[in-house]
Every structure is written in structure tokens, then in C-alpha cells.
């Protein structure tokens, strides 16, 4: 047992921190300004400055960390974890700057693992190059999406095509006009066994019948900087049969394969948010004076700071161990640990953000600090990829089995 | 001791509930639509339908409940409490519909108690008639406003005028172009005793040098339906000396007088939010099916519903007792109780809203349900009129004194 | 609505507080000493000083508050509530001193409502006179007693007798040799409808086959001062048929009638414990110095004190309202409220005791202060008369029904 | 970074688990019986069966794990951690069985590091052999012991002797008649610099003037199995000057050196308690039926089980990392981490025990299960070696410094 990062990780951390200090943090004010303008203009493109960051990141060799093997940066999950955390510190910019932003990472993984050579050439390559963005269309408004077997979208074979009808929402990234390709989950055979009814299929943005209705709000945010969350209707959307990913009936299995890494990536980045929130809380508490002394001298504020540190240290270690286990035993072998961090992260980081907001006074809720927006994002993680309650139930069932 | 409402209250509850059922709830979808349009147009006026509601409310004699005595509806605080709770159930519309919305209620109280006949004629009368709106400018960006003695805005006598310079933010309602009159808190004498330095003065919206910079966001919301929260700069704003409220040095005392009722009104209305959230939680849980049974059959969801009921019942009684005590012993006599409900309400109602959101799935965070917006509003109450920590500290000091 | 106690209540409070100040509190050290000696001698009698207190209480007319009507003190539940709270402040002595201790109060109520004239003469009269004690034998070790239909003890008619076989535990008060009479719940007809199988029967302590095995511990305590909690076996225990309370099959209904008041009495007394814990916490915090200042100046300690006050005020009002509702609408009409206080009280008071202990340092856990013993007692309330989870589930079901 | 135990650790875990399965768990019922008898006889010796366990442990080479280097088992802190956890699963027996019980471990460390050859021969050797026990006398009743500079016991040089006067309590293990040697902390020079006033000195049990007054209770427990917690008075206790440990004025520094390992050992063992509680909770929930289904099928119980697992996994990793850091950077280098686990452990494990108790019904509070006794022990950890509040304050100060 050893708690020290390996040499490769230490080297990459150094490079990434330099990039953050020299390039990303300095760009934050401009990006914030561009996004405030985007709100006024109702534009859904990411901040223009992002392209500069991407160019610089590529130049520095900070790109596609998330993808193991030769097509990516050649890192293990364990090596990627601290890097993802660092990008989380500037969550609106850094993950996209190094081409490691959700939902594209998961989509690239799916194409990498299950795509045909043609599919890879057409969509994986420009995604890996950071030229286009993508989305993943699974959640539906009319059913409890915590239970994936509820899905109602139909994918029907018709000659050499598939025809898609359905209604999706919370399709993250889809409002961004540069999100060119969508992975859509639907049912090809409602008479098959429960977990063999679903298939995944690729749909291009400009396909007739593909109708983006609106962006969903999260609290009052549109999440424009990462392409919002779209409500989409599919009216007889026709795509070539070659757009199917894998075979018919493999949709559920592919979704499961996709979710493991997606969940841990969220957790890794969230640690970065938590660390930055603690930093901000400490700085504000030291500067701000009330009733004759800095807020940092108040016992209750110190209690929050200490609890934050204690919580973060525990959470990070479990995220790292999970990454290590995924490297060693595969996503399935780390199933329980992935659930555990999925449950623990939003609660822990949300708690810290709430305290950081309180230390900032009303300003902490406003556009002058990123804390409230981070809180909103963290709150969504209690639903994303399944609500806490579903994961807890499943984790408890496994625990109960161990002791029977 | 008797826990039954008196006949007058029962009668008013009946009338108000009829108004809610027949007029307010049916208007909610249209108001929501108008506000979504206002976001697009960047308009800061309240939804147009509100004027219809106000006319109807006046016709039904449902008006100015908050103001005791002949100028208002002649109700005690205890009689007003359940009415305020009912208006809280449609918080974006109902309080304004019956002319009982913050911050106007507090401003009208100030003018009613401390205004000169001229001030009353010019500003109180149109406020009581619901013709104009108002704002209260106290909080400043550069200092911890939890400590009112920190205020830096200056009010300097110059001949027959006062000249005001300063910087305020979180001035609720001020973005509404119909907010015609502002009560501004500043210092007239920085050499006086700590609590005698402050004065309050009336400033009209169109006074030269009165510069509204922007609306503050709360979790991404602008709170347009109640006029937003403005950042305002005062550059040599000159008003007649007759605009002073009370005498020089009385600002702190007037502020204190204003805060008691303001705080309890927030708590009363918040109970209505909590009740409606429980209703929505129960309905959604009954309708939504996951893994083969309604969510309402899940033990964890039932735990939330039961806890919500247990918490609300306790909180409401403390709010009612506080109202009763204010009627009996005055605002000062109910000081501890006002602090207690100020501390308990946002935590309790925020907790309930969080659970109601979770039962609604991701939709609960979106513009399709009011829950997230209510959560945001409730979160601000942990700062409004002083952060929790200040009230707890003060309440504990009083408790410690009792046992020495 | 009125939050003031009536004249009768105010008068009784005055008398009872005088009794506490003049008689009970001064007797506490001696009682503690006698109980520490009882531990050494393994004696199960209450402290000898209790008889003096009872004599004095009777003389002062402070007796049988709990029993409405002419046979008791003629008080309503609402009038009794603040008196019960006051006795809770010295929970080991005061309730028994005024003959209002559990489980006798519930047993006297049962005999009062359902007893035959003979049963009343033989057992109710000496109980009302404070000459003997009693116990209530329902809980069984082999089944989840939260579900009363699980009960396995059999009560079989045999000629003019009933013969009882079964196994009970947690029979509070039963170790006290002066607990002369037991109300035993068992099944007379296992083929009847689920809630008509149970009956209640009176068993005298010295009946052959009635075998007290041992006293159950609660966090290491024996609870000797209120007669411990016995494990009892019934081996062919034969009693006259006239010992049956009510008719066969009425046991469940009688148990329900008994539980309502029993639950609220526990809650009332628990408020007294909470108030005394806050007093002790404040006093200790003011006296004890660490790192150069009184603990009372630490922000975290103030937070605990403030939260304690805020919680108690809310809880007390709900207990009082419940008492009022029982007076007005009967125990069944106050069913939801009784559940609510049953859920809220142990959690709230347990929280306060935990903080009071923390302020006292390790001493707070020891025999030098009553806090840890009170905590243990409060913890049992999360099981007594049904665990929290059962009540929450039932309360949620009722709430869900309201909104369908 | 690597989360796998090394080969030595895996081997030792195997041996220790075999010892637990074959020897310790089977001895638990007898030990429990012996301790229940000890309560009746007011005996303070550990259960007789312990000596058999010790003999067997020695034979198996499972001895003195805690002591690094050749005098102990030659393990690192990181290697010891999982072993300590395993002993924690049978906390009343196993740590003492392998001679790794508090407070002896800390005392042996002190003698090992700071003892003279004579002191080592006389007291360290029999301690390492498990022939005698020891105690550590620091806490005093009259002052807040969270602040070590408060200590009032005096150690005065008089010729070739030191004379000790003072009053201690909570001296763990001291009631055991086999606790032959005491390390006593007092002040040799009240005029010296704050942290140079204290010294440590060795006092034998049978020294005149050494007066053991009583055993302190924890809740209702005496903690007889590990020698209770004594209140002790020192009246002119005279010991040879050669009994001083280190030099005059080094007491505070030695105490600090002693506390680091002591704290982490408590945390390691507590993990074992937590694991066993989860096991018991799962087993009970699976066996017990209420309202027609096993308690394990209740959503709320599953929530507790899942949360327990999530909490334990995080806590264990932080304990392991702290052990690793102590090996690598020394106790001082792991200062923050030691504080973090000291804060997190009692809260986390106490929470789990509370839930395990609730699943067990009232039996969970009784002598029939060890859960309530474990809860009591865990509650003391929030005071032992300094209350949570002191550690949080210190940890927050360090965090604040990082961000200034």
C-alpha cells in the first residue's frame, strides 16, 4: 500500500497546474463576461476564449487524458484522477479546454469501444480532435428514468434505415450548435427480455424530424457554457442502419459500460470544486470583518472549515481507490465503489459549497462568485446517472448478501 | 391556552382560500409564461396578470392585511399569520395581489409609524393603494452587513437638502420600474454613539445621481416577478431635507422597528411554501412509478414526508406564538421568538424543498416546477435581515444570561 | 388562539414549582446516594427518600395530576402538560413523588376506564393512593413488537380460570418488589380477526408460575429508581376469569386507548429534561475556562445553546397543541399529532443532551451528572410504544391520503 | 499509489483472523458471563479467560504488534492498521489478548522512547511480556483538560525524591489491581514557559498516599473489562527521583509524542467495531420480520446500511493513509491527518452504532448485544485526548494559514 502518486502522475500534475495558473485562471474573468453576454444574446455557444485554451492545451500535450491507450493520453484511471480534480477547479473552462468534458468523454469511450471503423472515422476522430461536440440522449420526461427499462423511445427498422420516435429531456450539451452527433437510446424490441430491448443509435444534428424544443434550467441557470440541457422530440427521424452502435439489444449493456467512468469522472472533478470552495471560504473569512474581528475567528466558521477538510480527505481517497480498482478489476469489479462515491460526492461537496456560500454572505448566491452555480451543478449529480436512492438500495442489497 | 383561530380569522381564511382557488392558482400558468417572456425581453416589470389579481383582491376586500389599525385591514399579527401563510402558497403572485409583499409592507409600516403628513400623502397613500412599489436600501457590498454599524453611505446636510453618496446592493424590488420611492439608510454623523450615527431618508427613483447598475442573481434567478435585487450607486444624490424620516440619528432604531414584522412575515409565507411543497411531493410520489411500484411506497420517501409534516407543525406553532406575543408584548417583547423563527424557518423549509425536489427527479430543478426557485428564495433568508450565525449568537447570549 | 396558561394551570405551576424547589431538588443528592448504594446491594426498591416526597406531595395536594375527572386531580391534558414537564426536570424522583409515573399512570387509566368495580377496589384504589406499583407486560423477545399482532403469549380459558403461558421482556417497573399487579397482554383466540385475537388480563406478582428472570440493562443502567425492566416467563400461570379486563378480544383496542396518553406524558416530561439540560449546559459553559476564556464564549457552544432553545420552543408548542386536541377531539382525533410528538421528542431532546454532555467534558458521561442517564432513557423512547420508523410510515400514509 | 496490502500484512491478517475465528470469538460468551459475574462481585479484574487467550496469542506469534522495531513485532503503522482493526471487532478481548490494549501501548511507547535502562528493565519488560498492566494519569477534575497547560498536580523535588500532590480522574485501567505502574503528569515548575512546566513521573500502585477513590461510570458501564476509569488522589506521594521520565519540563513534549499513535490506534480499532456493527445490522435485519416482511426490505434500513458502507470505506482509507504518513513523515508530519481521523471516527462509528441499535429494537440497548456498550465507548472518544472542538479549531487554523 502506497499513497504517493507515481512519477508520470507527478509530472502531469506539474504541467497541468502550470497550464491552470498561466492560462486557465487568467481567462476566467473574460469567459465569465462572455457568458453573461451570451445570456443576453440567448446564445448557446461556449465562451469564445475556450478555443484559445484548447489550442494552448493541445500545444502543451494536455489533451484527452480520459482515454486510456494509444488513442488517448495513455493514462490509467488512477493517473487521470488527480488531473481531473485539477480541471474541476475551473469547471466551466478547464475540462473542455483539455477535451475531457462530459458528455463527450463517455460518448468517445462508447465509440472507441463499440464503434465501427466508419463510425470512428466520421465521429470519433473529430471528437478526439476537439472539433465537434456530442450528446447522449437517454432520459425521458414521461417515465422515472432511474429505471432504464422504462424507456419509451422507439427505434424501428425500416429497410436500410432505422426510424426513431420519442421524447427526451436533460440532454446535456445539446443546445450547443456545435454538438453535431447524438447517441440515442431507445427500444428496438419491446418483446425481448427486459435488458435486451434497448439499442443505441447515432443521430446527426441536422437530421429531419430531430427537433430541439428548449433548454432546461437548473435552478435559474441555463448551463450555456457546457451546452445546456435540451428537451428534444424525435418525429420519424430516419438514419441509416449503419448508425446502430453494436447490435440490436445491446443498448443497456453499452449504457452500463458507459456509466462507470462517467460517474467517477464527475466525482474527480467535484473534488476540485470542493478544494476551490474551501480556498475561497478561507480567503473570504480572513478578509471579512464583522463585529470587530475577522469572520475566520468565529468558532462556527472554523468548524465548517475543519469539517470540510476532514470530509474532502476521506472522499478523495475513496475516489482514488475506486480508480485504482477500475484499473485492476475493471468497471464491473469496482461496481460497489463507484456507487459509493456516486452517493458520497454530491452530498459532501454540496455541504461544503453551502458553507462557502454562507461565509460569502448574499454575494455567495450571486453571479459575482461561482459558488451558487457550482452548488446547482452538484445538486444535479444527485439525479444524474440515477438518483441516490437507487444506488443506496442496490449497495445495501449487496451488503446484505455478504452477511447472509 | 387555545389553539383555535378566532371567528374573524376563520372568515378571512375562507375568503382568501376562495380567492386563491378561483383567481390566483388559475392565473399561475399565465404568470409563469409572462415571466419566461420577461426573461427573454429582459423586462423587469411583474407579470401583467398581476394587475387583474390586485383589482379582484381589492374588490373582495382582501387588501393590506399586514397593516394593523384603520389604515390597513385591522388585523392583529396573529390574525394575519394564517393569511400570510396562504399567500405564501403562490409566493410569486399572491402576496403582491393582496398588497402584502415585501419590501413594501415594511416600508409602509415605516412611513405609517414615522412619516410626516406630507410623506404619508405623497408616498404612503399610493403604496397602500397598490399604485406604486418601493424599496429599502440598506445592504452594502463592501462591508459585512450583518453588523449594521458598518454602513458607509453618507447623508450630508447641505442647506435645505441632504446629499447622499454610497454604494448599495441586494436592494429587493428596485429593478421594477414602478418602484418609485426608496428608503435609504446612511450615516449623518460618524462621530456619534455607534447606534446614533444612522439616519433614513426618502429618495425618488428619478433623482439625478441615483444610478441602478444591475440586478443581482440568486442561483441564476433574477427574481423579476418581485422586482429583482439591484446594485445601486448614489453619486451626490440631492433630496430636500424634508425627506428625512424621523430625526437624524434615528435610523438604527427605525430599522430595528422595521425588521421584526418583516422577519415574521417571511416566516409566515414560508410555511405556505412548505405546505405546497409537501402537497407536490405527495402527488408526485403517488403518480410516479419506478421499479414496479409508486415512489410513495418507498420507505425513504415516506420518511421524508413524515419528517416534513412533523417539522411544519412545530414551526407553524412557533410562528403563531410569536405573532401572538408581538400583539401582546410588542416587537421588542417578542425579540427572542422572532430570532428563533428566523433561524428555524429557512433551515426547515429548505430541507423540505430539497426532499420535494428529489421526489420530482431532475424536473424538480427546472423551470417546469417552482421548487428550485422556492429553494433559492429560501436560501436567501439565511442572509436576509442578518445571517443565521448572528441571530444564534445573540439568542445564545440571552439564554446564557438567564442561567447565570 | 391564545398562548397563555389558564388561571388553574398557573396556580398549579406555582404550587408544583414550590414543591420542586423546597422538597424535590434538595432531595436529589440523597436519592442519588441511595441509588448508588442500591446498585452495590443489588436492591430494586426505589430510593427510600421517595416515600417522604410522596407524603409531602399528598399533603400539598399535588397528586394524580394525570387522571382527569373526580378520581384524579380534575385536570385536562392541556393543564397537566406543563406540570408533567416540571416533574420531568427531576425525572428520577418527581413523577413518582406526585404519583404520575409510568407505567402506573397508563395502568390506572386502563383500570379506570375498563376495570370492574372489584378490579378497581382491589388494584386501582391502592395504586391511586400510591401504596403499590404496577407493570404492563406486552413486549416479547422473540418477535418484532412494533407489530402488536405478532404477540405469542397465550391466555387460555380453563374452567373459571385463565391459564397464561408466554415470555415477555422490557417490563418496566417489574423488578420493584412493590410492583404488585401486572396487566398482561396475550392472545385468547388466534383464529379471530387480526386485531380481535388479543386480551388483557391482571396477574398478581406472587402467582405461581410467574417467573421474573432478570433486569434488562439500558446502556449499562438498570433503571432501579423506576423498578428496572424485567424479563418474565409465564409458566401455566393461573388466574381467576374475573381478572380479565373488558371482554375477550378487546386487548388490542385497550392497548391503543392506553398508548395515546402514555406517549404524550413521556413527551411532556422529556421537555423538562431538555430544559434542565440547557440550564446545566449554560451554567457549565459559563463556569468552565479553556484556552483563556469561558467555554460560553466559544461560537460552537453558542450555536448549540441557540439551537437547543429554538428546538425546545417548537417542540413544546406541538406537545401542548396535542394535549389540547386530545381534550377537544379525543385521543383518536389527535392520532397524527401524538405520532408527530412521539417522533420529534426523542430526537430533539437526545440531540440537546448530547450537546450538554459535550459541554460537560467526560464528566458529562459519568455518575456525577445525570445527563448520560437521561440520554439513555431518551434513547429508549425511540423504541417504547413502537419504533420511530413505524410511526413515520403511518404518518406518511395519512399525509399521502390527504393529497390524492 | 497502490491500495493493496503488502505480503507481510496479508500473512499477518490471515494468522490473526484464524486466531479470532478459532479462539477469540468462541471465547466471547464466556468472557461476557465472567464480566456479568464481576459486576455482581464488584471485581475489577479482567475476565479470567483473557489469560488463556494471551497464552495462545503468544504461542501463535501474535503479540505486541503496536511496537515498531525489534522490541515489538517489527511492523510499520501501516502494517499494524488492519490488524488493529481486526482486534477491534472483539474490542473487549482481542486487543488485550495480543498485548495491544490502551493505555498500555502508549505507556510502553513512552518507556521505550524515553525510559532509562533501569526503568525499562523494571516496568517495560513485564509490560511487553503481558505480566502487568499500567495507566496514564493526566486528566484532572477541576480544570478543562482539553488545555493541558491547566494541569494542577504538583511534582516537587525533595532531596533524592519527588513528592506528588494532586487529583486525577478518568485514569483508564487503574481499577484493575494488576495495573502496577502509573505514568503521572504534573508540574515541576509553574514559573517556566507554558509548555515547559510539565514533567512525567512513574508511580507504583502501592506507594503510600496514592489513593484510588472510585471508578467513573460511562453511561451505566464501569468498563471493568479494561480496568475501569479511576478517580485518584495523590497525597504527598513520594517516589525516587530516578522515576522521572526524561528531564524536568519535558512532560508536555512526551505527552504529545504519546498521543499521536494512541489516537490512530483508537481509530483503527473503531473501524473493526463499525464493521462488526454492520454485520450484526445486516444479520438482524434479514432475520427479523415486521408487518409481513424482513426489516431488511425496508427502504430506511437499506439507506442506513448503504450509508454505513459508504462512510466506513472513506474513513478506513483516511486512517490507512495517516498510518502511512506517520511511517513516512513521522507523527508530527501526520499531525493534520491524525486530527482529521480523531474528529471523523467517533462521529462516523457512533452514527453506525446508533442505526445498528435501532435495527435491533430495544434489545440493542441491552446486555444481550454489545452495541450499546460500544456506543458508550465510542462516545468517550469525542473527549479522549481532547474534545472534537479543540481539534477542529486547530485543524481550521492550519487550513486558514494555507490560503492566506
TrEMBL record, chains A, B, C, D:
Domain Acyl-CoA dehydrogenase/oxidase C-terminal, residue spans: 249-398
SUPFAM superfamilies: Acyl-CoA dehydrogenase C-terminal domain-like, Acyl-CoA dehydrogenase NM domain-like
Cofactor(s) of this protein: FAD
EC supergroup of this enzyme: oxidoreductase
Domain Acyl-CoA dehydrogenase/oxidase N-terminal stretches: 46-131
A molecular-function term among this protein's GO annotations: medium-chain fatty acyl-CoA dehydrogenase activity
A Pfam family it matches: Acyl-CoA_dh_1
Domain Acyl-CoA oxidase/dehydrogenase middle: 135-237
Keywords, in A-Z order: FAD, Flavoprotein, Oxidoreductase
Annotated EC: 1.3.8.7
Flavoprotein listed as a keyword: yes
Assembly and oligomerization: Homodimer.
Family per record: Belongs to the acyl-CoA dehydrogenase family.
Name of the protein described by the UniProt record: Acyl-CoA dehydrogenase
